[in-house]
Each structure stands twice: as structure tokens, then as C-alpha cells.
Amino acid sequence: MDRLTISNEAIEAELLPELGARLHRLRAFGQDVLRTPDDIGAYEEEPFFWGSFVMAPWCNRLQVGAIRIGTREIRLRPNFPDGTAIHGEVYRVPWERLADGTVRVQAGGDEWPWEYEVAHTVGVNGQVLRLDQTLTNLSTEPMPAGIGIHPWFLRPAMIRIRAAAVYPRNTEAGTEPEPVAGRFDLREQQAVPDGLDATWTQLGAPAVELSWPSLGVSATMRVAADTIFIVAATLAAFSAVAVEPQTHAPQGLRRLLNREPGAMAMIGPAGSLRMAVELAFDRVTDG
Predict the structure, then answer these.
(1) For residue 287, is pLDDT > 80?
(2) What percent of the chain has pLDDT over 90?
(3) How far does Cα 208 stand from its chain's mean position?
(4) Which residue did the predictor score with more confidence, 56 or 238?
(5) Distances (CA, A) of 147 to 8, 93, 150, 264
(6) Can you give the chain as a three-state secondary structure string?
(7) What are the residue boundaries of the structural domains of the chain, listed by start?
């Protein structure tokens, strides 16, 4: 299994190009901060619940079945127990490793009728990890597009999401977000409760702050894209929390068809959608 390691004295990141270019391991100051399996075979059995992976050409859930966009028809099949098509197409397929360390994959032309390319670059500079994703339309007609990353951060962790509004249920996301309140108000750093699967919007800067007091590590997440949403999800069975920057709200294709806010983008032939995520790590000391 090919492993691509990018590291310096503060950060070590390990990618598996053959398994969806997944960020298998991320260490800050020698401490693991991702949910990483002992056996990489776990990525085949449960691809959505380990490490960190790229979501493209869409994020979160889309409805399945025949959907016409322009002259083309999407025929997505369910890949999740709730009957939806979730997290795109490239999370478990082999990616190509280029000489400069970039990994890329070409996909589409099947139930997703547009062909496209995704490039992913991981870099470290001092105490900052940078993840750059680019989704490019290789087809001759405009294509709906969304991109994001899906890291599972170890718990116990304290998390702050600077957001004024939220879609409280990704499975049943309404047209408009709601003002944050109660368990969805994460504007002060706190332990995220179990059972969340929501999307935050109207974000401040930085979008997210994380802290692992037991590890002596903290991180600030900054995201650069034309539109930014943050998903957070927790499952009682997992000692991890997903904190996912992405470029559209839940049910992004429905939003595009209905002209609702938070829709997937439409990118023309040879057009691209980009997102950059920086995690700036620091040490946490008592007192």
C-alpha cells in the first residue's frame, strides 16, 4: 500500500492514495488527532467513519433516482443505510500520485453523467496543515459541483463553531437555516453532544476552534471558498466527532433545482471549484 507522508517537527500527515487519497493519520506534536483504524482494511468495510476523506462532486446527502439537469440525467444509487447517496464518488477509489505530491482522480461519466477531476494537495508549514482541493469539470456542459473534506477528530474534544445559523437536521434540511439555540449553539467552546448531524452557516472567523486538553493540543480551522458550510456529526458509538467544511448546504442538488439558498454551484466546461482548509495547531498548557 502506497503511503504519502508529509511532515515536519510539529505535524505528521499520512495519506493513502490507493484508498481514496484518505488522510489516514494526522499527528500534532506527536499526538494522534484523527480516528485511525489499526487495520487499513477498515476503510473498505466502513469508508465513512475513519480518518479524513475528500467529498466530491457533492457533499452530504443527495436524493437518489433519475434527476435531469439540462440535457443530462443523474441516476444516483443509494450508498448509505438511510437510502441516500452520500459524500460523492471518490472517497474509496484509487487516486494517482503526482511527482509534486499532489494526488488526483478522474471520475464521472456514469450515474453522475459529467466527467470531472479532483486534485488534493496536503502541505505543512510550521504548525499549520493545509489541505487544498480542486474540482474541475471535464465535460462539455455545465456541471453541478460541491467539494469538502470529512475528518473524524478524536474525542474527548472541545469544539467551537462561530456560526449564527444552523440547519439542525441534515436528513430533513429545510429551505432556510434557523438561528442557533440550545444544543446547536456552539459559539462557546464545549464538548459536542451525541446525536448531532447538522450544518452551520453564517460563519465567523475563524470558523472552528478545537481543543484536546488531555493531549495538550489545540487547533484553529480556517476555510477559504466562495461559500462555506460546517457540518458536525457525533455518534454515541464512536469516540470521535466529524467536523466537515464544505461548499454547499444539505440536499445541495434539491436546492439547485428549486433555487434555494446554499445550493451546489454550477461550473462550466473546464471550470473549477476550490476549497482550502488550514489547521493551525498549538500546544495547550494547564492554567
Answers:
(1) no
(2) 91
(3) 13
(4) 56
(5) 27, 16, 10, 9
(6) CCCEEEECCCEEEEEEHHHCCEEEEEEECCEECECCCCCCCHHHHCCCCCCEEEEECCCCEECCEEEEECCEEEEECCCCCCCCEECECCCCCCCEECCCCCEEEEEECCCCCCEEEEEEEEEEECCEEEEEEEEEECCCCCEEECCEEEEEEECCCEEEEEEEEEECCHHHCCCCCEECCHHHCCCCCEECCCCCEEEEEEEEEEEEEEEECCCCEEEEEEEECCCCEEEEEECCCCCEEEEEEECCCCCHHHHHHHCCCCCCEEECCCCEEEEEEEEEEEECCCC
(7) 4-283
User: Domain 4-283, what architecture?
Assistant: Distorted Sandwich (2.70)
pLDDT digits (tens, 9 = 90+) for 217-270: 999 999 999 999 999 999 888 899 999 999 999 999 999 999 999 999 999 999
